[in-house]
Amino acid sequence: MLKVAILNEGIYMKQLADRTIPTLTTMGLAALFVPLFFYIHKFAPGQIPLPDDQAVWAQFGDFFGGVTNPSIVFLALIGLIVTIRMQ
To answer: Cα–Cα distance between 53 and 72 in angstroms, integer?
Structure first.
């Protein structure tokens, strides 16, 4: 009976991993593109001006990194938990 329970848990973990990888990939891509979309929507309605000022690019980099890094780290933590749980 124990062997069947272990086998069923192994199948469940395989199915969980098969669902988790595409989900985390999709959420990671969304974490990258959603802040970019909102930034463009807010500050460039109609056209995307490319500034020459280095300070403006630095502000955009700070915004983009500040929004996306915590999101990606959270997704990495979920992936780590799933892989530890699979072992």
So the answer is: 29
Are 13 and 86 a contacting pair, CB within 8 Å? Answer: yes
pTM: 0.53
Query: Which positions ≥6 away from 71 have C-beta within 8 Å?
Result: 27, 28, 31
Q: Is 52 helix (H, G, I), strand (E, B) or coil?
A: coil
List the beta strands (DSSP E) in the chain: none
Start-end of H helices in 44-53: none
| Euclidean distance between CA atoms 38 and 56, whole angstroms | 16
**Section 48-72 average pLDDT:** 80
